TrEMBL record:
<dbReference type="Pfam" id="PF00589">
    <property type="entry name" value="Phage_integrase"/>
</dbReference>
<dbReference type="InterPro" id="IPR011010">
    <property type="entry name" value="DNA_brk_join_enz"/>
</dbReference>
<keyword id="KW-0229">DNA integration</keyword>
<protein>
    <submittedName>
        <fullName>Integrase</fullName>
    </submittedName>
</protein>
<dbReference type="InterPro" id="IPR004107">
    <property type="entry name" value="Integrase_SAM-like_N"/>
</dbReference>
<dbReference type="InterPro" id="IPR002104">
    <property type="entry name" value="Integrase_catalytic"/>
</dbReference>
<dbReference type="InterPro" id="IPR010998">
    <property type="entry name" value="Integrase_recombinase_N"/>
</dbReference>
<dbReference type="GO" id="GO:0006310">
    <property type="term" value="P:DNA recombination"/>
</dbReference>
<keyword id="KW-0238">DNA-binding</keyword>
<dbReference type="InterPro" id="IPR050090">
    <property type="entry name" value="Tyrosine_recombinase_XerCD"/>
</dbReference>
<dbReference type="Pfam" id="PF13495">
    <property type="entry name" value="Phage_int_SAM_4"/>
</dbReference>
<comment type="similarity">
    <text>Belongs to the 'phage' integrase family.</text>
</comment>
<dbReference type="GO" id="GO:0015074">
    <property type="term" value="P:DNA integration"/>
</dbReference>
<dbReference type="GO" id="GO:0003677">
    <property type="term" value="F:DNA binding"/>
</dbReference>
<dbReference type="InterPro" id="IPR044068">
    <property type="entry name" value="CB"/>
</dbReference>
<keyword id="KW-0233">DNA recombination</keyword>
<dbReference type="InterPro" id="IPR013762">
    <property type="entry name" value="Integrase-like_cat_sf"/>
</dbReference>
Amino acid sequence: MTPLRQRMIDDMRIRNLADNTQSAYLQQVTAYAGYFHRSPDELDQEAIRAYQVYLTKTRGLSPSSISVATGALRFLYKVTLKRDWAIDEIPMPKRPFKLPVVLSREEVMHFLASVDSIKHRTILMTAYAAGLRVSEAIHLKVSDIDSQRMTLRVDQGKGRKDRYVMLSQRLLDELRTYWKAVRPTLWLFPGDLIGQPITRCAVEMACQKAHRASGISKPITPHSLRHAFATHMLESGTDVRTIQLLLGHRSLATTSRYLKIATSTVCATTSPFDCLPQIEGSKASPAPPAHF
């Protein structure tokens, strides 16, 4: 291991960056150095620009992927190498704003019924019922279930933050049925390796298998269940601030995007056109086609 790599690792650990972030940053800096066949401390801003052009034009990566590489290079040069460049001199690509495709309640029910493994079905049920990220669901422990307070404890979720989320009675019943069948001890959803939780990859593969079996045309990932949770909560009348706390969002603006997709909330609003008096002189027109 080179001294520069070790120093960057130490800098990330001092700042308590998430393990996934550390791994991604190291991978990106390694790829950057490999592209030029030189140590990053020998490269300048022009090299960074040339690399971003390569990622954009030659490799055709998405803005999200390029943002990860840019974040890694910003950290390397501003924190580890302490270059006196303005942060904007390493430009961050603008990400397009896309709304998630949301499953209806009926589609969620049909999807969960298509999961053939009790462990996989229960972890996906939990992700939906509590609005969990897949990384949070796989790291639940048996001791995180508090049936007295009807809560689930999320230990060190995104941003290294603990939080409590709702434990519905129906989910508690499902978890008790699952526990009787599997008898987990430490991890609520144990993996194939002794003493380790189920892997993210295993949950994603189970999700893909159930998606194919369900025949639902919408894209479905484990995160789709979190989107569905937030949208369905909003459509049921839960205020945005409460949903923000349940999801563990740092910014209310992140949660507010669900206002754009909660159809029963947005589309049920009366249009001002409906409030206008009947327009004089308007004549009845022929009936539209049946499919209109």
